[in-house]
């Protein structure tokens, strides 16, 4: 897919959260039996429980790290908590889902209070199994810095969805 039509570029996930990358893995994300694709729109109630995140492939010796962040916290027009860390799972074997990994930071469902928030799920291929410690806070997490510190390199896959509160309407303000 050309960079001009890439939904991650159009949604500014590439730029705000990630550097440009070439997808090298396939990840399927399901909330309540609904598969999520780039730009899907979900209300808070639909994301209350952690999603099923499946990594497709055929080599369970390959391990992955999953990072879920909100680059629009607390509001899209004033993202002072960018990036808010919602979930961090390491050592996820290819062919299985995130429930088989090591949950470093427990899932916290997105609860946007203002505007429509982009929620990014980013998958990194691990070179080795390693110890990862939970950061001391969720706000102002940096996916790029995390990747660099743990030598994860560029993402293997990423997807984002849009989330807003139950009674929300309007745009990304």
Automatic annotation (TrEMBL):
InterPro entries in the record: PEBP, PEBP-like_sf, PEBP_euk, Phosphatidylethanolamine-bd_CS
Membership in a protein family: Belongs to the phosphatidylethanolamine-binding protein family.
One Pfam family here: PBP
UniProt-recorded name of the protein: (wild Malaysian banana) hypothetical protein
SUPFAM superfamilies reported for this sequence: PEBP-like (SSF49777)
Any coiled-coil regions, as ranges: none
Domain of life according to the entry: Eukaryota
Lineage start: Eukaryota, Viridiplantae, Streptophyta, Embryophyta, Tracheophyta
Protein source organism: Musa acuminata subsp. malaccensis
């Amino acid at each position: 897919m050309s960079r001009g039509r890439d939904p991650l570029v159009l949604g500014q996930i590439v730029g705000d959260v990630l550097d440009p990358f070439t997808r090298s893995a396939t990840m399927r994300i399901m909330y309540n039996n609904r598969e999520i694709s780039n730009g899907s729109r979900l209300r808070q109630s639909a994301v209350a429980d952690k999603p099923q995140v499946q990594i497709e492939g055929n080599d369970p010796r390959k391990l992955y790290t999953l990072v879920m962040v909100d680059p629009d916290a607390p509001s899209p027009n004033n993202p002072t908590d960018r990036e808010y860390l919602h979930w961090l799972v390491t050592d996820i074997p290819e062919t299985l889902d995130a429930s088989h990994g090591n949950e470093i930071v427990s899932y916290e469902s997105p609860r946007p209070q203002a505007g429509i928030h982009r929620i990014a799920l980013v998958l990194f291929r691990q070179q080795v199994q390693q110890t990862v410690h939970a950061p001391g806070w969720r706000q102002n997490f940096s996916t790029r810095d995390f990747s660099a510190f743990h030598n994860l390199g560029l993402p293997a896959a990423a997807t984002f969805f849009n989330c807003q509160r139950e009674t929300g309407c309007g745009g990304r303000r």
